[in-house]
Automatic annotation (TrEMBL):
Belongs to the class-I pyridoxal-phosphate-dependent aminotransferase family. This is Aromatic amino acid aminotransferase. The lineage of its organism: Bacteria, Pseudomonadati, Pseudomonadota, Gammaproteobacteria, Vibrionales. Its cofactor is pyridoxal 5'-phosphate. InterPro entries: Aminotransferase_I/II_large, Asp_trans, PyrdxlP-dep_Trfase, PyrdxlP-dep_Trfase_major, PyrdxlP-dep_Trfase_small. Homodimer. Keywords: Aminotransferase, Pyridoxal phosphate, Transferase. Residues 27-389 form the Aminotransferase class I/classII large domain. GO terms for molecular function: transaminase activity.
Length: 393
């Protein structure tokens, strides 16, 4: 049964953490997987999570099953966090999922059941897991131009031109904020124009919001998708607590569906639950219990929001320091674009070979597509990383 299976390929992101750990060199920097590190190089449990955990451990009386949709109070919290005070709330439904990759897969499966011939349009480039997940759901994938390798910004004109070719049976996947891998986000005007195209062409927008709070702020990072949600008939959203609650290993996310009516949204939810039952039955509870505890407690919510602000501001300052180091010590403004990017990631514009040189010669682990995780830097790494970037460029 198994003898014809090919040898496994390594995951382009997750394999880097293992390679980094096994690297015996003293001088090494992990800029691979999207994980936030403090100035001491650790990924600490957030204080709000720590406090919520104490509360949950002290009060939780059972480990019995929760339900197919996971924790409904968590689901409502995710709807509120993502959509705010939107007027569309009565035609929205949500299920808790094992992380945002789980949400992507559930929604991919839902698309396949509801509209089997759908093509999903992804940005070029996009999060490395987008295409495998959509194809695993049996969907066709196309790409729209997104990133200009010269300016290192979004090529807005080409993006809009190519998205305008999407038809009424297509789905267009957008990154809500902090584009992975490039760090280059679309501006509000582009959100408005893509919304207009969705209305005219009839395609369904699908927004992956995995980094809410890491770009410009919790509300600001959802502004584009909220504008869109108010104006389109149908939409899908995935959201993650991996980064903004630091719950990576707890696999805590949600899939949100906006239907034409409340009934449509409930029908979509029903289908998602049937599919969840046939896949994992129900999502793990712990992460969602912690997020729910924070969101239902004003004091914990304030602590969490402040911590998230601190993390975001630190990313901005790390970007500025790296650019400053490249400008002052190395006299180049070639990498100033790093400062205009948002969230954890930046694409340096390096080839696979250049990324391999960073890894092999300097012990700096970025993704082969040229992505580095700014959130993996510590202040003391900056001169070393700037020097290596210059030597490799
Ligand atoms: C990343 O892009 O590094 C993260 O989203 C981790 C993952 O699941 O791929």
């Amino acid at each position: 049964m198994f003898s014809h299976l090919p040898e496994p390929k390594l995951d382009p992101i997750l394999s880097l953490s293992v390679a980094y750990r096994n690297d015996p060199r003293e001088e090494k920097v992990d800029l691979g997987i999207g994980v936030y590190k403090s100035s001491t190089g650790e990924t600490p449990i957030m204080q709000a999570i720590d406090l919520a955990q104490q509360k949950v451990v002290a009060t939780q009386k059972t480990k019995s099953y929760v339900g197919l949709a996971g924790c409904e109070e968590f689901n409502q919290s995710m709807i509120d966090l993502v959509l705010g005070q939107s007027s569309v709330l009565e035609r929205v439904s949500a299920i808790q999922t094992p992380g945002a990759s789980g949400a992507l897969r559930m929604l991919g499966d839902l698309i396949k059941v509801a509209q089997p011939n759908t093509t999903v349009w992804l940005s070029n480039p996009s999060y490395v897991n987008h295409q495998p997940v959509m194809e695993a759901a049996g969907l066709k994938v196309k790409h729209y131009s997104y990133f200009c390798p010269v300016t290192k910004q979004v090529d807005k004109a080409r993006m809009l031109e190519e998205i305008s070719q999407a038809g009424k049976d297509d789905v267009v996947l957008l990154h809500g904020c902090c584009h992975n891998p490039t760090g280059a986000d679309i501006d509000f005007d582009t959100w408005q124009q893509v919304t207009r195209l969705a209305q005219e062409k009839g395609f369904t927008p699908f927004v992956d919001l995995a980094y809410q709070g890491f770009g410009d702020g919790i509300e600001e990072d959802a502004a584009g998708l909220r504008y869109m949600a108010e104006r389109v008939e149908e939409m899908m959203i995935t959201t993650s607590c991996s980064k903004n609650f630091g719950l990576y290993r707890e696999r805590t996310g949600a899939a949100i569906v906006l239907g034409r009516s409340a009934q449509d949204a409930q029908n979509a939810k029903g289908k998602l639950l049937t599919m969840a039952r046939a896949t994992y039955t129900m999502p793990p509870d712990h992460g969602a219990a912690l997020v729910k505890t924070i969101m239902q407690d004003a004091e914990l919510t304030t602590i969490w929001r402040n911590e998230l602000d601190t993390m975001r501001n630190r990313l901005v300052s790390l970007r500025a320091s790296l650019c400053e180091e490249l400008r002052t010590t190395h006299n180049t403004s070639e990498f100033d674009f790093i400062q205009s990017h948002k969230g954890m990631f930046t694409v340096l514009g390096f080839s696979q070979d250049q990324m391999a040189r960073l890894r092999e010669e300097f012990g700096i682990y970025g993704v082969g597509d040229g992505r580095i995780n700014i959130a993996g830097l510590t202040e003391k790494d900056i001169p070393y990383v700037a020097d290596a970037i210059l030597k490799v460029s």
